[in-house]
Design brief:
Radius of gyration of chain B: 24 Å
Number of helices of chain C: 18
Low-confidence stretches of chain C: 18-31
Number of strands of chain B: 2
Order of helices and strands of chain B: HHEEHHHHHHHHHHHH
Low-confidence stretches of chain B: 1-24
Mean pLDDT of chain C: 89
Largest interface: A-B, 98 and 96 residues
Chains: A mainly alpha, B mainly alpha, C alpha/beta
Helix content of chain C: 40-55%
Strand content of chain B: under 5%
Oligomer: heterotrimer
Strand content of chain C: 15-25%
Chain lengths: 269, 311, 434
């Protein structure tokens, strides 16, 4: 019994520590500038005001939200499809240069993106994709090494027995992947989907570099624009960040059931 | 790896089938990998190779590059500031990664039990990962404020004068590391949760019946079976933390007195503030080599200890 | 759901369809006669004004369309650099004096043909290279003294006719600041029992901010930042070091300023402290007004910066409209840039209360705008007619800036003497000058 109480106590502390900084975001978003100077950061401004949220939503911000949503949806769809195929091949199919190629993929994660973005930008210029949706999506929509790594490790943990059985029955790799492996992948795919959604939603450097117009602007860049060289409008910035945060929390809360392995499967005894 | 053992135990009948299979998988495999291969080759590998090559050039960005051979590397050998940055980075990694991993695993184990409101807790723990660097810097700047930040005010309640945190040369790096731990623990917890759920309960029950204590159960059953997850988390976390940049750039700008000047910050400064891209490419090459070696070491370490249960 | 093959194929199809149907984002119609120029800036408040300006320009020039691009300030330069590397830089864009040397010496900017005499000379000087002007002067911001009138009233102190300072601590500035600095027991610096660790209100903000702080002390004391434009740093001579010492003394010796642990960049909170009424006098650039004046919880006054032994010289920082040397439409770009330097747009921006226009004689609109907001900005204007100096015009400043701030952070913390700090800074700075 004491163990239970301890367990819940630890969880409660963890939850508090995780969420407390966001309290500042929420409180600041609902303060006026005067209240911001007048009250401590973690005390609410009374009365709270929705004017910051209104200001953000009345301007171009909803358009940037839409841009970001479209980008996120496309990147996630692409990641789920192409990464799964590639990861399965790396995990289970045998072909010349497989492991070297895989580690080459992983190696591309080891050079800072701040420097690789210059050559990448030049490549995009050659392909005439600067300031376009294609340019924004291209480096990541065909699958990322991180996603491939994740899925490959997952595929490796699945028992080989099922594939063997299917192979003996005459099924080709495509059928095996789609009919046999995929049903078992829900937790991994769910995790991959959530991770891709959230990292695409929050991506900043590449969208900043590859596009400059309003029709491809994403919310991270829009929020950063509120930080002028000389001063910051904290209230607006927190309001914008809050608006950007809510969909992500919602996505996670509603879709987390897909990342839990259902007890039903693994009838592989 | 798994397939080998399976095939060996199935006997010679399989040899013929195996031959057919091997030829079969060939073109399928290339087809499966093709789209990602194209993307990675064109947009990730090619820029990376260009950067490695540029380490042999002097390039002020706004003008054209000139070939200088190994000059940049000679400069690197005597560049105290860069070696200092590497030291700072390693310190950061040591502060961050062990703590983060232990916390994430612990939380995952706690949540893996029958807990009321597990979905609620899981969401809360992951929420830190969803913040953008700008917001983080602002909010944690307030929390760390020496005068009326949350931490020092709380410490004052128990009569302790807190340090100056982000302005203090001893505490700035731990402060930045703390923010990272806060940000990524929940995220890593997700992977450990998935890994834990893959361990059949029967194994734990069997260990218990055999008289193992919970601690023995953990070290002998749980941890080894978590190896694939650990491997992934360890490799990706190390690759990421060696390249930490956003939090440092937003919170401390490399200060105070260069105590948070991690290598990636130095690379960014060199490339874009000092317009010295060739040298930045050299630093990037160095960082790449280090990360690569660290990764290969982990492949060795985890590779030896990974077993897959096939029964 | 996802393991259902038809749905997977549908998803795949959707991705491919989306990729092929998404058109390109930029408007680059090659068929039409119209020329589209891109104009880049970072201030979202000024953007509102510029949209009107561009509308007027497009009306007067029917063959030209202008696209405004708003980017975050912190990343503006990284993005501009990437664009210059790729040849995709905007046609006309904002340029600052500290970034100017780097870009002009690499041939990124085109010289402009405007009558330089019509603009504020310090701004003109900031953008002149080898005798030619490489940007149309746009505006200027100047450092003045903002002060909290309510705190003055509360302490029963009058703002002196003229604030003066001297390295030996004499002068009305220190005197006034002392009267306005109170600790929690109500004591002032110099009183018995004054506790510098428990100060409630500070009289003055002295901190490591080169633009509004020590550079002004240095030049007002007869020191020099650089020996000449595109030259070398020179602020470690005795006059400069004396001035630096004064700035540091305000913090560590006289205790009229908050300790450096609270004010050092990048985490420093001085602006917030001023807004919260914890600091009485705050040197600031007038461009900061939109961020501190609206919704201020106290009455704000403006005064000229204090005069040093050699008079008063304050920093005047102007921006320019730069024209990309490799623009695809050089003639039209030049037309736009030159238009932006004429009376109509400059007056529009000034009347909107955004900036002091670089074009001489048009600042009344700006003054009136702020007068309506109960802030008298005339002292800023007064100062602009006196001695002003630009930020150091030399290559490598952008790379040097971080190092400079780190060194001077130590100085304000009292860990380095001003002489040592200045020497170190000048040496490291000169190593970056190309």
């Amino acid at each position: 019994m004491a163990k239970r109480i301890l367990l819940y106590a630890v969880l409660a502390v963890g939850a508090f520590v995780s969420v407390f900084p966001y309290l500042l975001v929420v409180l600041t978003a609902f303060k006026t500038q005067a209240q911001l100077s007048g009250t401590a950061p973690w005390l609410p401004g009374l009365p709270p005001t929705a004017e910051n949220l209104a200001k953000m939503l009345a301007g171009d911000f909803p358009r940037y939200l839409l841009n970001t949503a479209v980008m996120t949806a496309l990147l996630t769809a692409g990641q789920l499809v192409f990464t799964t195929f590639a990861a399965y091949a790396f995990a289970r199919l045998r072909f010349r240069g497989r492991d070297v190629l895989f580690w080459l993929f992983v190696a591309t994660m080891m050079v800072p993106s701040a420097v690789t973005m210059i050559p990448l930008f030049l490549i995009m210029r050659e392909l005439e994709l600067v300031n376009t949706w294609y340019g924004l999506l291209a480096p990541y929509v065909l699958g990322t090494p991180y996603g491939i790594f994740l899925m490959r490790q997952f595929f490796k943990t699945l028992p080989a027995g099922l594939e063997e059985a299917a192979r003996i029955d005459g099924a080709g790799p495509l059928t095996i992947l789609l009919r046999v492996m995929l049903p078992l992948c829900r937790p991994a795919l769910g995790t991959l989907a959530i991770i891709t959604v959230i990292s695409s939603w929050n991506s900043f450097l590449w969208p900043l570099i590859i596009t400059s117009g309003d029709d491809t602007k994403v919310i991270t860049v829009a929020i950063a624009t509120l930080k002028q060289g000389i001063g910051v409008d904290y209230n607006l910035m927190m309001a914008g960040s809050l608006i950007a945060l809510v969909p992500m929390v919602a996505v996670f809360v509603f879709f987390q059931k897909h990342i839990v392995r259902s007890v039903v499967l693994t009838g592989l005894k | 790896m798994t397939s080998h053992t399976a095939e060996r135990s199935l006997g010679t009948d399989v040899q013929v089938a195996k031959g057919r299979r091997r030829r079969g998988s060939g073109w399928h495999a290339y087809l499966f990998v093709a789209p990602s291969l194209f993307g990675v080759l064109a947009f990730l590998l090619l820029p990376m190779v260009i950067v490695l090559v540029l380490s042999l050039f002097d390039w002020e960005l706004l003008s054209d590059p000139t070939f200088v051979g190994l000059d940049n590397y000679r400069r690197l050998a005597g560049d105290g500031q860069t070696w200092h940055s590497l030291g700072v980075t390693i310190a950061y990694v040591l502060l961050c990664i062990p703590l983060q991993t232990v916390l994430a695993l612990s939380l995952a184990m706690l949540l893996n039990q029958r807990v009321k409101g597990v979905r609620f807790y899981r969401s809360l723990f992951v929420v830190p990962w969803m913040a953008t660097p700008i917001v983080l810097a602002l909010v944690w700047g307030w929390i760390f404020d020496p005068r009326d930040g949350a931490i020092n005010s709380a410490l004052a309640l128990v009569g302790v004068t807190g340090p100056d945190w982000l302005s203090d040369p001893t505490w700035a790096l731990p402060a930045v590391a703390l923010v990272s731990v806060w940000q990524y623990t929940g995220y890593n917890m997700l992977f450990f949760l998935a890994g834990l759920q893959g361990i059949p309960k029967e194994l734990h029950d069997a260990a218990e019946t055999d008289g193992a204590t919970p601690a023995q159960g953990f070290w002998r059953v749980t941890l080894p079976l978590l190896n694939p997850t650990m491997f992934f988390v360890s490799v990706t976390n190390l690759i990421g933390s060696f390249q930490v940049f956003d939090t440092v750039y937003a919170m401390t700008d490399g200060g105070p007195s260069h105590t948070t000047e991690v290598i990636n910050f130095r690379i960014f400064q060199t490339a874009f503030k000092e317009f010295d891209f060739g040298y930045a490419a050299t630093l990037s090459t160095l960082l790449f080599l280090i990360i690569f070696l660290v990764t290969m070491a982990q492949v060795r370490f985890f590779g030896k200890r990974t077993t897959y249960d096939l029964s | 759901m996802l393991h259902n093959p038809p749905i997977r194929w549908a998803l795949l199809g959707a991705v491919l369809l989306a990729l092929t149907s998404c058109g390109s984002g930029s408007g680059g119609g090659g068929e039409s006669e119209k020329v589209t120029l891109t104009y880049r800036l970072w201030d979202d408040q000024q953007k509102v004004g510029y949209e009107k300006v561009m509308a007027a320009f497009e009306k007067a020039n029917p063959g030209i369309d202008v696209n405004l691009e708003l980017l975050p300030y912190d990343q503006y330069w990284t993005k501009l650099t990437a664009d210059v590397v790729a040849g995709t830089a905007p046609d006309v864009f904002w340029m600052t004096p500290t970034q100017f040397p780097e870009y002009v010496t690499k041939g990124v900017l085109s010289p402009v043909q405007v009558d330089a005499a019509k603009y504020h000379q310090t701004v003109v000087g900031s953008f002149t290279y080898q005798g030619k002007l490489y940007g149309v002067p746009k505006d200027w911001g100047i450092v003045g003294l903002l002060y909290n009138k309510d705190l003055f009233k509360k302490a029963g102190v009058e703002m002196p006719e003229k604030l003066t300072w001297a390295a030996d601590g004499s002068g009305t500035l220190l005197d006034t600041a002392r009267k306005l600095t109170v600790d929690e027991a109500g004591k002032h610096p110099g009183d018995a029992g004054f506790d510098p660790a428990k100060v409630k209100t500070y009289g003055f903000a002295s901190w490591n901010h080169y633009q509004t702080q020590w550079m002004n002390w240095v030049v007002s004391n007869g020191g020099k930042l650089v020996d000449q434009p595109f030259g070398k740093y020179a602020f470690n001579d005795p006059a400069s070091v004396q001035a630096l010492q004064f700035g540091v003394d305000l913090v560590n010796k006289h205790h009229v300023s908050p300790p450096a642990t609270q004010t050092n960049p990048p985490t420093g909170k001085v602006t917030d402290m001023f807004k919260a009424g914890q600091v009485a006098m705050f040197p600031a650039n007038n461009a900061l007004l939109p961020f501190v004046a609206p919704e201020a919880t106290f009455e704000m006054g403006v005064a000229p910066m204090p005069e040093g032994p050699k008079g008063r010289s304050v920093n005047l920082n102007g921006l320019a409209e730069a024209v990309y040397a490799k623009s695809k439409h050089p003639k039209e770009a030049m037309k736009l840039a030159e238009y932006l330097g004429t009376q109509e747009p400059q007056k529009m921006m000034a009347d909107g209360g955004y900036v002091f226009p670089a074009l001489n004689g048009l600042s009344q609109g700006y003054v009136d705008y702020w007068k309506a907001k109960k802030i008298d900005v005339a002292p800023f204007e007064q100062e602009a007619q006196g001695s002003t100096f630009p930020l150091p015009i030399t290559t490598g400043f952008t790379g040097f800036e971080t190092k400079l701030n780190q060194i001077f952070n130590e100085m304000y913390l009292g860990k380095l003497t001003p002489q040592a700090a200045a020497d170190q800074a000048v040496t490291e700075g000169n190593a970056t000058v190309k």
